[in-house]
Amino acid sequence: MTWLLIDWDTALVAPPERDLWNLDPGDGNVLDAYASATGVSPRPALLDLYRLRWDIADIAVDVSRFRRPHAGSIDDDKSWELLTSLIRRVSS
User: pTM of the prediction?
Assistant: First the structure.
């Protein structure tokens, strides 16, 4: 049995890199399999762009959270750790 991921909302609209950046575990297997199956090689620059776009969106969500009153809960602590790690990754 073969599983297929089809995003009907953007099928054939968005470049494949929009979804592939998040599916590949970092070893290139998913990207190579995609290229073999479709004949289209994912473009590294677009993979990086969509990865960065996701990180920036996550930063915006967390910054918005901390601009509102918050109690310093465990969830706040975890969100703060995520926010600082995202900022470090984006700025490197």
Answer: 0.75
